[in-house]
Amino acid sequence: MSNIAHTHYPQSGFLAILGAGESGVGAAILGKDKGFDVFVSDKGRISDDYKATLRKEKIAFEEQQHTEDKIMQAALVVKSPGIPEHAPLVKALRAANIPVISEIEFAAQYTDAKLYCITGSNGKSTTTMLTYYMLQRGGVNVGLAGNIGKSFALQVARENYDVYVLEISSFMLDDMYQFRADVAVILNITPDHLDRYDQHMENYVASKFRIIRNQTKEDYFIYCLDDEETIKGLSSFKTKAKHLPFTQNHVVEQGAYIDEEKNIIIQVPNKDIFAMNIEELSLQGKHNAYNNMASGLIAKVQELRNQTMKESMESYVNIEHRLEHVACIGGVNYINDSKATNVNSVWYALESFSPDIILIMGGVDKGNDYGMLRDLVKSKVKAIVCIGKDTVRIHESFEDETDVIINSSSMQDAVEIASYLAKKGDTVLLSPACASFDWFKNYEERGDKFKEAVMTL
Predict the structure, then answer these.
(1) CATH T-level fold of 105-315
(2) In CATH terms, is domain 14-101 a member of 3.40.50.300?
(3) Is 79 annotated as a binding residue?
(4) What is the tens place of the pLDDT at every residue in 65-77?
(5) Is the pLDDT of residue 410 over 70?
(6) Is 216 annotated among the ligand-binding residues?
(7) 296 in a labelled binding site
(8) Where are the domains of the chain?
(9) Does the annotation flag 91 for ligand binding?
(10) What is the pTM of this model?
(11) Overall average pLDDT of the 236-247 stretch
(12) What string of DSSP letters covers 239-297?
């Protein structure tokens, strides 16, 4: 099969699956369909839906434990991306030379569909969804999987797509060895999940670059020319794939850039040139221009018509709670970025908007290091309105960077304070950097309450 470089994994025998979430249950079904003797083991509770699916498929499982003696008999192990490499069971399996791979690696050997794989610290979901939307509109028989949508393995088992758009996290990449991406995309690399990488940025960068492993000269590598860590990584990680960089700071002969008239220009060898003004994009902001360039490059490789690309980029609606435009009231834009539960995502949001921003942030602090936000807060934020119970660290971190930091008593209160502080041309941005569990059930409820409050202004 074309998506695995040199398959040498067992093709039958005892298959153990660690973790019974979306990816684990999907891998179990594919394994069963391919004739393996499958056993699913989860250290936590398995959700009722997944248990019902496993029973219906007659697949053996256990929950709230790992029966190590049994699992150590496996010919092959597929593990959930959530289980770290230093877990004792994983270490034991490695020591016994039992192959431990990801669901994506396992499923790729059973499909010859084209695989368009997108990774990056920020913007993965938006770029993946936009690409999927564009290809669907272009009439491509396309599936959506990875970190998003239904399990890739389940779709390989039970669907029949010609192309998959896969959102791939670094945790998935860590368990991929033979897998080959027809198109590999690295959007950006900023510090995230360093606790899984021994606090070493270079380990995290190396993980991201696993996406280009095994690529051939027939394949494409799309990356951001303006991203410092990606460019540093290029000197260490080589690929035969055709390079298609995208940039807002340079002009490139192959790839994507923005010209003096603010048009995105996309040029892929032997395909017609695409041009579209950034004002016409449905997703506004600097980061979204990058996301559109990356998606546009994939669409060009897939030979979509320019008209289809343009219509898709004009009409795509972003996922809810991620830099979602709520309303413009009295010349003030209100943006719901409730999904920004870490400092990194807030950095990204602040980077996306021009000054003057009134930032609504706070909630359950996950030991955040707010240091990386200081320069952006200083240059762009004119006031911070705190929500949630952990506000002390926000005050301590930014008291020198902005003139106004105010605590609020509810989301309604926060929005009213923000609207009072905002002038025409300003942006009120909910981008909390924290979990939501003090005042809200989850980030969705937090975002919905923000939208309700804005609509009552």
Answers:
(1) UDP-N-acetylmuramoyl-L-alanine:D-glutamate ligase (3.40.1190)
(2) no
(3) no
(4) 999 999 999 999 9
(5) yes
(6) no
(7) no
(8) 14-101, 105-315, 324-455
(9) no
(10) 0.76
(11) 95
(12) --SEEEEE-SSS--SSEEEE-TTSEEEEE-TTS--EEEEGGG-SS-SHHHHHHHHHHHH
* 410 marked as part of a ligand binding site: no
- Annotated binding residue at 120? yes
Q: Six-digit token pair at 420?
A: 């009072």
* Rounded CA separation 417/327 (Å): 17
Give the relative orientation of helices 443-455 and 411-421 as an angle to the nearest 10 degrees: 50
Residue 122 has pLDDT above 50, yes or no: yes
Strand partners, 373: none
Q: Is the dihedral of CA 145, 147, 150, 152 positive or negative?
A: positive
Maximum separation of any 2 CA atoms in the chain, in Å: 67
pLDDT at 196 over 70: no
Alpha-carbon distance of 307 to 311, in angstroms, equals 6
Residue owning tokens 């999940």: 193
Answer yes or no: is 131 a known binding residue.
no
Q: Which CATH number fits domain 324-455: 3.40.50.720, 1.10.10.10, 3.90.190.20, 3.40.640.10?
A: 3.90.190.20
DSSP-assigned letters across all residues of 361-413: E-SB--S--GGGGHHHHHHHEEEEEE-SS--HHHHHHHTTT-SEEEE-SSHHH
